[in-house]
User: Fold DNA replication and repair protein RecF from Bradyrhizobium archetypum.
Amino acid sequence: MTPSRIHRLSLTHFRNYRAASVQVRGDVVVLVGPNGAGKTNCLEAISFLSPGRGLRRATLEDVADNQGDGSWAVSAEVEGALGLATLGTGIDAPGAEPSSSSRRCRIDREPVSSATAFGDHLRMVWLTPAMDGLFLGAASERRRFFDRLVLAIDSEHSSRVSALERSLRSRNRLLEVRNYDDHWCDAIERETAELAVAVAATRGQTVTRLAAMLQERGAASAFPSAQIMLDGWMENALTSESATAVEDRYREILCANRARDAAAGRTLDGPHLTDLQVVYAPKNMPARDASTGEQKALLIGLVLAHATLVAEMTGIVPLLLLDEVVAHLDPVRRKALFGELAKLGAQVWMTGADPAAFVDIGTGGEIFDVESGQVRRRT
Assistant:
């Protein structure tokens, strides 16, 4: 299997980094520093070298240095599935042609159509403190979390989800018209059903494989196992029915529910409402009922299992971005985490305020001090 590794990361006008470059050699890269120094900003910059809006889901304009001209750029020299390559992304300053709001993506300085192309070189998985409330939050947050897991395996998944959302919006707008055209509705619903089945099928395949991976890890991991399933009729139907049959049924549902959906102002049935259900396996209880510490450990175990699955399914060991993960782990669990990361064989970027929390990272790790938008290797 091919590990995804960054050898050099360069940031220009990104968040609080006016200009910074980090050259790394180790398998574990630790960024330490006080709150607000820019540790998470660095991980966020890396996350833009994948499809989507990064680990904070920020808009393109939000990540620009507020002391700059509105442009920003992130580039990295990486070693991945296709060997050495330079990946870059960013936006131009306002007023530049073409429109500055358009994200630019390049591989070896040649333009590519979107960040989806980065998936041919590296995959990545991340865990942030914002995910700590995942099991207690809205279904939309769990669905977005799971779609990110799918995306690490199938780099086209995000494009299909976006296309489905656009198709649903088109149908909703059409239903707002008092005397809408049934033929137009038929056409839009045909497209919507096709996209919905494509999205649901990929999700269903991923949850089945990830559930098996979690069961396989079981007691062998220091982090608790989870039982996971999708609460969505379409994903579940596709395990026993053909895609064509499910697509036809959804199209019939959409047609029958036009009046109801028009009154609601939204489509009330479909995979855009699917939820991820998680059970804390050691106690056989819903993850939402577990303690805060149990939920954190469960989430770490889920992400580690997913990283292993990505490696098995794609042949690419993903890059891991772990923001403030060790802060609330006891010394035994911290050491166990470092051990599991070493077995995975991934390059891992971690952040933390206390360097002492990383004493067990091993000889393959290196620590960098982050302060005021500058990153320096600790000597």
Observations:
- The chain has nine helices and 17 strands.
- The chain has a mean pLDDT of 94.
- The first strand starts at residue 2 and ends at 3.
- Residues 182-217 form the longest helix (36 residues).
